[in-house]
Design brief:
single chain, 235 residues, eight-stranded mixed β-sheet, 6 helices, 33% helix
């Protein structure tokens, strides 16, 4: 869906038929509310905070809606005592952790072995490293990872070495931009149109979310209630 259509639909949802009561909404406000709505929509679907309570890959619809945001990328790692840590910080477009994949070797087996990596709490690392059933094990092909200081740690307990790793995560949706409109994030005039990456049926839901945000800002309670209900009912 192009940005002109998005602007028309937003204004149509806010106005009382042809009254043009709120026709003076600036383009940057539409951009800001739409981009904010994208983030809120994505987080809610991943979390499962929707009428059907089906979150991340909890149904065919969630898989179809969210697959656009899944990123799989190589993870550069460096060995330290007890764990390997990512060399670079988690990408700036990171939204939510999905999984870490890695291959390991040890002195007895030089053939890389794929490990199952569970996400754990940094607070529990000491307990997990001591627990015979949960500590990193090359024989069982299992270990755990944690997130700290915007980096990923994959624990080995010095039982094996990691040869390579990959990181899969949900990224933030790409912000839309309207040509000639001041970008509310950079304060620069946008030189080109950047359209929404989502398919039209999802854009319709995000438009309702954006109108809900705008209606709340201008204290239009009827429009806020209607568009909130509409967005949730269609999820």
């Amino acid at each position: 869906m192009n940005n002109t259509t998005i602007q028309l639909k937003v204004k149509e949802r806010l106005n009382k038929l042809d009254s043009l009561d709120y026709d003076n909404i600036s383009c940057w406000k539409i951009v800001e509310s739409f981009n904010k709505a994208q983030i809120e929509w994505a987080r809610r679907q991943i979390r499962g905070s929707n009428p059907f309570k089906d979150g991340d890959e909890g149904s065919v619809r969630r898989i179809d809606d969210l697959q656009k945001l899944l990123i799989d990328t190589p993870l550069q790692i460096i060995g330290k005592d007890l764990f390997y840590e990512s060399l670079l910080e988690i990408p700036g477009n990171f939204l939510e952790y999905k999984r870490v994949d890695c291959h390991s070797i040890n002195e007895c087996c030089k053939e890389p072995r794929q490990m199952i990596v569970y996400l754990a709490e940094e607070d529990n690392r000491a307990q997990l490293l001591r627990d015979v059933n949960k500590k990193p094990s090359f024989d069982w092909g299992e270990t755990f990872s944690t997130l700290i200081d915007n980096k990923i740690r994959i624990f080995t307990n010095n039982d094996f070495e990691l040869e390579k790793a990959r990181f899969t995560y949900y990224r933030k949706p790409i912000n839309i931009q309207i040509e000639g409109c001041r970008d509310p994030y950079t304060l620069n005039i946008s030189p080109v149109d950047v359209e929404s990456e989502f398919k039209d049926d999802i854009v319709e839901l995000i438009i309702d979310e954006a109108v809900y945000i705008l209606a709340g800002d201008i204290e239009s309670l009827v429009q806020a209630q209607r568009t909130s209900t509409s967005a949730e009912r269609s999820n």
